[in-house]
Amino acid sequence: MITTLTKRQHIFVKEYLVDSNATRAAIAAGYSKPAASAIGSRLLRNAKLRQGIEEQTSKRCEKLDITTDFVLEGIRDVTQRAQAIGQFGAALKGYELLGKHLKLFTDKTEVTGADGSAVKIILHGGKKNVE
Prior knowledge:
The chain is mainly α. The protein has helices at about 5-20, 20-30, 35-45, 45-65, 70-85, 90-100; strands at about 120-125, 125-130. It has two domains: about 5-65, Arc Repressor Mutant, subunit A (Orthogonal Bundle); about 70-100, no CATH class. The chain has six helices and two strands.
């Protein structure tokens, strides 16, 4: 792990890997409970901490031999078994996960003006104003 992290930051990374809960990890690292949510959020934006989390996650996946193929094969197998025994809700969830991996589904957000018309962006002296 990156050696430039403080002791608290090392603890935060270790604890964050337990359940991906930044607030709980901040408390475990010794930050105050009232400020833990804000501090946890701030720590997750820290590039060194993000790198530490990514390094530890990669090490864990390597140790457990978890690969993209392993995960996708597992989802495929469970989906096929669920469909074969008539558990269509579970099968549909499997297909959903596989579809997301293939980027078959995209969430689109339509942005319109107050009256439903298109949003206009007007540039004034290098500054953007949105009408």
